[in-house]
Every structure is written in C-alpha cells, then in structure tokens.
Design a protein that fits this description.
mainly alpha; globular
Length: about 200
C-alpha cells in the first residue's frame, strides 16, 4: 500500500501539471484550468474505483485533493503558464508521461491485489492511466489523446503486462517496479522524440 500511495502521489502531481498546461493551451479561465487539472489528476482513479465497486480514494482520503491543489498552486507560483511554448510542450510531454506510467502502475497493483485475471489487470490499469485525460479532453471538445497519440495507451498495456508477469513469477518488488517505470517512461519519451507510430489502416 505504501508503494501504491507513492505512485499515486507521483501520478497526481504529474497529471495535475499536464492538465493545467492543457488549460493554458486552450485559454481556459481560472476555474476551467482548475477543473482540467483536477479531472486529469483524479478522474482516472475515480473511474477505476467505481469499476471496482469501492469508494474512490479521492473521496475517502485527503492526500489526492491536497496533492492536486498544492501542485496547481505551485504551477501558478512558478508561472508555468508564461513559459516559452517549446519549454511548455516538453514539460507537458514529460509530466503526462510520468503520470501515465505512475497511474498504470497503481491500476495494475490494485487489480493484482484484488486477484483479477489478465484482462482485468490490463483494463483496470488502462482505465486508471487514461480515464482522467479522456474525461478532460471530452470536456474541452477535443479528440482524446489516447485515440490519436501513438505509444500512449500502449504504455499502459506494457506496464500492466510486465507487472502481471513479475507477479506470476514472484519477482515483483520495489526495484523491479521502479525498473519497469523507468523503462516505460524512457520508451514513451523516445517514441515521442523519434515520432514513432503504430501501424494504421489505409482506407
């Protein structure tokens, strides 16, 4: 549970920043930026917990909301909304990637703890990782990134599959989970830099 909380806090911070930057990019007002950041940071976890039939952590624990609010306050304090466009782009990509991987891990860990089968682990990890971003994108009338961005949702599938394999082999611990996280973050950033794409159907 300690590992889950650490990954959850990292994911909330990273996704709150990426949601904040999406709000800046779309020129939302103050309330709109807060909503965009909150949905991105907490939405996936709320959907995940609803699927599992449990009270969402965001409603039962104080740290998710407090972490999100402190992150948004820091974003304003450091004037991230005034950063150069290129710097802001890379800050968004990095924070979004870290949040994606962190929430993929938390979703997979909860599913494994609940003794879900392979598909349950994959789906719960995926929902946790992309649910908040999809909700945010729908709110601002934008096609969800997971539907158009390569190596985005795929990262959640890789993370959850790797964790499930480690669990089945009895090799899952803090070190192996950290190794998967680092590899997945590096893979996503390299894919973005190299402009890698998954195959697309020609119609």
């Amino acid at each position: 549970m300690t590992l889950f909380v650490i990954a959850d806090i990292i994911g909330i911070i990273a996704f709150a920043i990426s949601g904040f930057l999406v709000g800046v990019r779309h020129r939302l007002d103050l309330l709109g930026m807060l909503i965009a950041a909150a949905l991105t940071a907490l939405g996936g976890g709320i959907i995940r917990d609803a699927v599992m039939g449990r009270t969402p952590f965001a409603f039962d624990e104080y740290y998710p909301a407090i972490t999100g609010l402190l992150t948004i306050a820091a974003a304003f304090a450091f004037k991230l909304y005034k950063r150069d466009t290129l710097e802001r782009k890379w800050l968004f990509v990095c924070s979004d990637t870290i949040g994606l991987v962190a929430f993929s891990i938390t979703g997979a860990l909860l599913a494994i703890e609940a003794d879900y089968n392979f598909f349950g682990v994959i789906i719960l990890s995926f929902i946790t990782a992309v649910g908040g971003g999809m909700t945010r994108d729908v709110m601002i009338n934008q096609v969800p990134a997971v539907l158009v961005t390569d190596f985005y949702g795929s990262i959640a599938l890789i993370v959850s599959s790797a964790l499930l394999i480690l669990h089945s082999l009895g090799w899952m611990n803090e070190i192996t989970i950290l190794a998967i996280a680092i590899f997945s973050i590096a893979l996503r950033l390299v894919a973005h830099t190299k402009n890698w794409h998954l195959p697309k159907l020609s119609i």
